[in-house]
Amino acid sequence: MKFTYYGQSCFALETENKKLLFDPFITHNPLAKHIDVKAIEADYILVSHGHGDHVADLVELAKQTGATVIAVPEIIDWVQKQGVEKAHPMNFGKFTFDWGTVRMVVATHSSSLPDGSYAGNPAGFVLEVDGKQIYFAGDTGLTLEMKILAEIYNLDYAILPIGGNYTMDVDDALIATKYIDCNKVIGVHYNTFPVIEIDTKLAVDKFSRENKTLLLPAIGESITL
Fold first, then answer.
1. Report field, pTM of the whole predicted structure over 0.90
2. What is the end-to-end Cα distance of the chain in Å, rounded?
3. What's 163's DSSP letter?
4. Does the domain made of 2-224 have the CATH classification 3.80.10.10?
């Protein structure tokens, strides 16, 4: 399985059969100016919540790729009003697609759409695909709800926000790894704005001292999971 990072919380997972895109925010991210949005392909686009730094390119990319959007019903209603035809509304629960299973899980955050309308509850996702279990936390603070995941899954990777201020910081993310019992983390939601800038070397070192791995791929970089 290939993971490609596009900046902020936007990334792609290329499975054996499908291309999954998450929280598309590229054209408005100055750190991602070198990314060719027109070249991005997706079969599904999963959206954690409605804030602009997670949905700025959602409508354009959904139309460009013909992808099915997976999100809470309020976000689905919003994208359909803008002409997106393929959508799968979810709430906190799980659904098995022809490529794998998705569970929508709790995130502690806020959520509204760029036009100010209500975007439903923020969420994260746990994916079971290609024999792996991967948790994308979305935008969230540290929450005891995460402990439930360790009872249900044996997570291979966790994709966690680490920038602080709006979400968990590095120290909170380290605690989260203990809650979810996962030692391999890909960090997202950092360095895009001054308020979420971090010392990346220090972050990696903190994880290493706890015998955990923090992966911080560059924008546009792909890694194999």
1. yes
2. 5
3. B
4. no
